[in-house]
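Bumping with the actual sequence this time:
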Amino acid sequence: MERLDLLSGTKGKNGKTYWTKVGTAWPSKTGAGYTVYLDFLPMTRTEDGKMMMILAPPRDRGDAPPQRQAASTDMNDDIPF
């Protein structure tokens, strides 16, 4: 088995759960359990006081949600003000 992503879930105002990658996990060399590397420690908790994290297969770049595009900085001088 290869690496897994460690995701932390937070509920948005709309009730949806949003997942943020907070680290990675690798199978231990002994085969029992995982070694977890945290990039940062999430501090958000659920309504009942629990901190929720899951292990998930890494996403391929093709699976990533579309990125926001920056507004164009091209100026069109043909438009009068």
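The tokens above came from a reply further down the thread. Residues 66-74 have pLDDT under 50 and may be disordered.
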